[in-house]
Specification:
- The chain has 549 residues and is mainly α.
- A hairpin with a 2-residue loop joins strand 3 and strand 4.
- Helix 4 packs parallel to helix 6.
- The longest helix is centred in the first third of the chain and has 26 residues.
- It starts with 5 loop residues before the first helix and ends in a 10-residue tail after the last helix.
Length: 549
């Protein structure tokens, strides 16, 4: 694949004209806005319309959503992670998702008027189905049962008073959309020049894996319904196996510094054409001369936008593959850098430290623009700092997630996992960073728990990247156990650190307490779902609020 060209930028800019505003409730934009008699004539019109959907994808700032979990903390409390969230009149996750679904439905319907190459027409119908599935999934994992909208409608339509649809029906509809779309979409390898970054057949299979894993976990841990959970876990396994056997993707390898490939995956070296790991991305461009848009994520990270917590730091294994409390490498921390020593290298490539020599020669944990004492290195791009703009793409789904999905679904489905599956999934990730293999004998001989280790691998691989951890603790139903705990940060070393708060609140080991347990709560009766926006409930008597809200 090649990085996007100016032609593709023009397509996106043209398509952006089709991004229309939506009303407060389920999007019901009048059809006349996209039914101009001069439009909807040929496949290129469908392509332009599909371009609008890409603008609804999560941007680089979504990586800061890890603040919603126990992984990270920003410069202020997060109302989702500390349980202080309240019901609101509007919710952009709701309105934007339904706006995107409205565009997708309109494209699918208007395609019946288009003449031309059938393969091209089917391709853009399939792109629209992908996005319709994606946004129905985004709605379901947040709100639970949501209206399933598979056609356009106006003010006079019965869908104006839509009921909430059982989540299993919504998810099954999304999975069907993805299944139907896959055969008509190109492979990742064929997406070049102006088509770089568009939806591929691999992306639809990958999204099936992601959707089914979430719903399988929800069915198992929230509903205790093994029939549903096993059905979805089987879907994960089948989709993941299909993608793995296709050979379309592989883990990113940065040949100039192979042992640092994980770090460079989130630099320009891992962006675009050189990255065989990216499956589904939000495009930003290449530079100021070849740009869709820029972002300031590097500056945000320097300002403490999202910073590691003690909980995340302690989750990383030591180089012998053992955690704190099991390893002989764990000693009393006597300096800021001691906790990076002999650890999983991903820790040192995710959180700033002196050993991250390709970034800085003297950085160590400090309290300058961070409340936890740690700053994030993942996606921090030194060359962009002075420019006040970055163009690196935001990775939404990457191949590593498919490997982890396969391993997790296998264990959840069967209660066991073979060393062979571990070697083709988790151990590939470990080899990239020179960590020892995870095996059944290793787990048994060291008194570990295989499920815990599979989940740990997911946590550290995706740390401070999107909001994987938040949705993981939601679907595993462990948010009620981890989110009410105090948020802690770095250990205090007055002779090494700058900007230490005056009279800091410290625990018995001198780790700073950023937010005490007294200020955090999680109500399992209501907090696993997001409240529906009251404006929409007020406009539709058939919409009911989630329990407890």
């Amino acid at each position: 694949m090649q990085k996007l060209t100016i032609n593709y930028l023009l397509f996106l800019l043209s398509g952006s004209l089709l991004v229309f505003s939506c009303n407060k409730q389920l999007d019901k934009t009048p059809e006349s806005q996209l039914s101009d008699a001069t439009f909807w004539k040929n496949p290129n019109d469908l392509k332009l319309a599909c371009n609008a959907l890409y603008s609804y994808l999560p941007g680089m700032e979504s990586n800061g959503y890890d603040n919603r979990s126990d992984n990270a903390y920003g410069l202020a409390p997060n109302d989702i992670s500390d349980g202080s969230r309240v019901v609101t009149g509007s919710n952009s996750d709701w309105s934007r998702s339904y706006a995107a679904i409205r565009i997708a439905n309109n494209i699918i319907e208007k395609a019946t008027n288009v003449t031309g190459n059938a393969a091209e027409i089917n391709r853009y119908i399939s792109e629209a189905k992908f996005f319709r599935a994606y946004f129905h999934f985004e709605l379901t994992k947040r709100f639970g049962d949501v209206p399933l909208i598979l056609r356009t409608f106006t003010d006079a339509d019965t869908l104006m008073k839509a009921h909430r649809t059982n989540r299993n029906i919504v998810i099954d509809s999304a999975l069907k959309d993805l299944t139907d779309a896959a055969p008509y979409l190109p492979t990742a390898q064929s997406l070049q020049n102006e088509d770089y970054g568009r939806i591929s057949s691999g992306a639809t299979i990958a999204l099936k894996s992601v959707v089914a894993l979430f719903e399988g976990s929800w069915a198992k841990y929230h509903e205790e319904n093994t029939s549903y959970s096993n059905k979805y876990f089987d879907t994960v396994i089948n989709a993941s196996q299909q993608l793995i056997s296709s050979g379309q993707y592989s883990l990113f390898n940065y040949s100039p510094k192979q042992d640092s490939s994980y770090f460079y995956l989130f630099q320009y070296a891992g962006d675009g054409a050189t990255n065989s790991e990216s499956i589904f991305v939000r495009l930003y461009g290449q530079n100021i001369f070849n740009s869709i848009a820029s972002h300031r994520y590097t500056q945000n990270l320097d300002s403490g936008y999202t910073c590691a917590t003690r909980s995340l730091m302690d989750a990383y294994l030591y180089k012998d593959g053992l955690p704190i409390g099991k390893t002989t490498y764990s000693t009393t921390q006597d300096s800021t850098m001691a906790e990076f020593t002999n650890r999983d290298p991903r820790l040192g490539m995710t959180v700033f430290n002196k050993d991250l020599w390709y970034i800085s020669s003297d950085y160590q944990p400090t309290f300058s623009f961070t409340l936890t004492g740690y700053k994030t290195a993942k996606y921090f791009i030194p060359s962009d700092f002075g420019l006040n703009a970055s163009y690196v793409d935001n990775i939404i789904i990457r191949y590593a997630e498919i490997l982890l999905n396969y391993a997790e679904a296998t264990y959840e489905r069967n209660g066991s996992i073979s060393d062979n599956v571990l070697n083709t999934t988790i151990n590939l990730l470990r080899k990239r960073v020179n960590m020892p293999d995870l095996t059944n004998s290793f787990v048994s001989s060291n008194g570990l728990n295989m499920l815990d280790e599979i989940r740990r691998e997911r946590r550290v691989e995706f740390a401070l990247e999107g909001n994987h951890r938040y949705w993981d603790i939601i679907r595993w139903k462990i948010a009620e156990n981890v989110l009410p705990l105090a948020v802690r940060g770095s250990k205090i070393f007055a002779n090494e650190q700058s900007n230490i708060p005056s009279n800091p609140n410290l625990d018995e080991n001198r780790y700073i307490i950023v937010q005490s347990a007294a200020l955090r709560k999680f109500d399992p009766q209501k907090d696993y779902l997001t409240p529906l926006p009251t404006n929409d409930i007020g406009n539709d008597e058939n919409l009911t609020q989630n329990l407890g809200w």
